């Protein structure tokens, strides 16, 4: 992020406590290699401290914070015959964002370097990594605990923390973001003071104080609270797109609708729009005739929320897509599944942790990892065909199927239902049996043999296994293949 108001930034940095590891004051140090080592140390210290930038300021005494000015001009400094800034960028690995500014404030001249940390690996200068320990610059290799922590920190860097819009005023923020979901969805009281609302957005990680009297809007803030996502280049196209087709293929579409609001702002309206347009059937509920959607709303909500959370935001221009067919719904997100589809109910891994935790805090999805479990439970309760999870190199697709009787299901659908029923039983520390699978398919006891055939075929193909290898056929119990 560039420095927009260097004098305001200087005033703000002088308010920081002396022990800030991501901030260094100097007066006239003109040694390019010394400066380069400090850039490495400050970048790595900023990552450990969770800061989006580190700073090196020339023209201020380190101990007293006295403003004395400097005769250094970083933008004019040379290393050999090469401009200092070009040389420094070349000596730093990996490449990071550096902003070098010479400025006059209140009659004194200062030079500032703003340093963004690397989110790939620790930053090296001339092949060596440095770190700030207290107020001292040290070689990172001499502090293995810090080195280990730094590698962990760089691995946690996510798209959500990056800046979507920099140097925004308070008016800019309220024009581009809708803060109401912070209070409507969480139940927190709404402050009357705009400064308190901004403070709340900072707490959630939607905004960053840029230390220059303004704010940076993060990608997380934009994707959750945007009034119009198309105004943010980094998330444009990431709203949910809904397409309804006539029939069972893509040959003829009924309508296509792409949202523009952030997820927290538009999720409820999107779900209402979707549920009103799903295929329905007539049922009598408590003696009253009602039109009921083919698909449970809870299952659809969790699958869509899962697609939002686990999408790969680095894949530009495309977001989650919901496709409605006569006999199914397909929900696709960019980015393959981080988990093997056979373990999608029991393993926990998220591509976008901050987005996931925020969606949970706002009540837009289930607790950590419970969304797809609940989807399967709802589907089994309705005796619907089991969903299909299809992971490819660049996308993840979940297919929900309309009601279909057991006799109408294909062999593959029956096997899939058997496997996921077995997984759900295992997750509750229980076992699948012929009786539980019959109940799952809404079959009578006399259909024992039909269910036994499915179980036998599932064992043959290695999808499930007997809970006890020595058990007899009567009252036999089963677990997923990966549980033995």
TrEMBL record:
Highest classification ranks of the organism: Bacteria, Pseudomonadati, Pseudomonadota, Alphaproteobacteria, Hyphomicrobiales
Positions of the Schlafen AlbA-2 domain: 19-140
Protein name as annotated: Transcriptional regulator
Organism: Neorhizobium lilium
Annotated signal sequence range: none
Pfam entry (one): HATPase_c_4
InterPro entries to which the protein is assigned, alphabetical: RecG_C_sf, Schlafen_AlbA_2_dom, Schlafen_AlbA_2_dom_sf
């Amino acid at each position: 992020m560039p420095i927009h108001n260097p004098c305001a930034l200087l005033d703000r940095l002088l308010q920081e406590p002396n022990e800030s590891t991501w901030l260094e004051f100097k007066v006239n140090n003109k040694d390019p290699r010394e400066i380069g080592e400090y850039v490495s140390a400050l970048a790595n210290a900023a990552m450990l401290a969770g800061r989006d930038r580190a700073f090196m300021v020339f023209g201020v005494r380190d101990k007293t914070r006295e403003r004395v000015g400097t005769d250094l001009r970083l933008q004019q400094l040379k290393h050999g015959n090469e401009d200092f800034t070009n040389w420094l960028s070349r000596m730093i690995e990996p490449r990071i964002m550096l902003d070098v500014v010479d400025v006059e404030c209140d009659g004194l001249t200062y030079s500032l370097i703003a340093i963004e940390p690397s989110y790939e690996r620790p930053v090296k200068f001339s092949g060596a990594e440095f770190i700030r320990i207290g107020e001292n610059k040290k070689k990172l290799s001499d502090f293995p605990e810090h080195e280990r922590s730094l590698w962990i920190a760089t691995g946690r860097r996510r798209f959500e923390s990056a800046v979507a819009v920099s140097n925004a005023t308070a008016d800019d923020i309220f024009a581009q973001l809708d803060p109401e979901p912070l209070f409507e969805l969480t139940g927190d009281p709404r402050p009357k003071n705009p400064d308190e609302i901004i403070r709340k957005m900072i707490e959630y990680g939607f905004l960053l104080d840029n230390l220059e009297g303004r704010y940076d809007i993060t990608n997380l803030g934009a994707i959750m609270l945007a009034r119009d996502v198309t105004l943010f280049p980094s998330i444009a196209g990431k709203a949910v797109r809904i397409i309804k087709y006539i029939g069972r293929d893509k040959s003829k579409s009924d309508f296509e609708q792409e949202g523009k609001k952030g997820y927290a702002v538009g999720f409820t309206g999107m779900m209402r729009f979707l549920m009103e347009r799903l295929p329905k059937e007539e049922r009598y509920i408590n003696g009253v005739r009602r039109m009921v959607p083919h698909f449970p709303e809870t299952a659809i909500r969790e699958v869509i929320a899962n697609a939002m959370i686990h999408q790969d935001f680095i894949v530009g221009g495309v977001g989650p897509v919901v496709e409605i067919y006569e006999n199914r719904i397909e929900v696709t997100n960019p980015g393959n599944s981080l988990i093997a589809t056979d373990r999608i109910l029991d393993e926990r891994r998220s591509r976008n942790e901050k987005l996931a935790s925020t969606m949970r805090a706002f009540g837009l999805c289930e607790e950590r990892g419970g969304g797809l479990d609940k989807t399967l439970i709802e589907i089994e309760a309705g005796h619907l065909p089991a969903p299909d999870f299809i992971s490819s190199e660049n996308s993840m697709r979940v297919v929900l199927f309309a009601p279909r009787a057991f006799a109408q299901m294909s062999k593959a659908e029956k096997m899939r239902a058997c496997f996921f029923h077995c997984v759900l039983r295992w997750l509750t520390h229980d076992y699948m049996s012929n009786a539980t699978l019959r109940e799952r398919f809404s079959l009578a006891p006399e259909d024992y043999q039909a269910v036994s055939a499915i179980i036998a075929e599932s064992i043959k193909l290695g999808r499930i296994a007997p809970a006890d290898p020595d058990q007899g056929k009567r009252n036999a119990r089963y677990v997923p293949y990966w549980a033995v």
